[in-house]
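User: quick one, fold this
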Amino acid sequence: MIIDINAFSGHWPFERLPNTEPVALARHLRSHGIGKALVSPIEGIFYKSPQDANEQMFGQLRRCPRLLPVAVADPTAPCWEAHLRRNVEAHRIRAAKLHPNYHGYGMAAPETQALLRVADALRLPLIVQLQMEDQRTHSPLMKVPPVDPAAVLKALPAEMTSPVILGGLMLGDLNRLAVEIAKRPNVYVELSWLEVMDCMATVLKAIDASRLLFATHLPFFFAECALAKIREGRLPRKVETAILAGNARRVFELD
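Assistant:
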């Protein structure tokens, strides 16, 4: 089984995207041989309260058991801690996703540090989404620079053990930060934004296969693009299996 650890559902206000509703997304994933996906709500980026978007998605995912909920968390929002704890206990979220650039906070800010400590106490993986789409395609009235991954790594508490996944990391940043990532055993990278010829051979020179997670970034990217990276990489079966599913099972404690 293939596990996609970073997909999205819901409405993107700047473009009509395909397969954005959970049922359609699940069908699309299945057609590409992807058995499970961790999904967060796009609306969580834009609603004043991300929890409203989370609750909306939780209801929709009841029809899609192979789509696993990831809640958007914003440490500047009221009641974020109560919502996060409730999402873990009542909705069994598999991770929380942070959008620091869209929500306007820094990773070193006191409120963000508080969220990191709570997530660590809950043993909850965090996905820090560095970017959503190529900056060249942003609306002229909503230019959102990507999150600096170096700032993310620097802000992580030294004692933190819960997994932190860098979502939307680009190859140049991976190469630049490979040594720092290697020093932090709880930091992982997903491959959806890693683009280069002979992708897997290049990526695996910078990061150990045990730290790499399969992801599509659907519906913004095509599932086939992520799958082609693996297929054309001609990896040893053990390495391929780890990237496609084994690492995700371990990081997110999946069946």
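User: anything notable?
Assistant: The CA atoms of residues 75 and 114 lie 8 Å apart.
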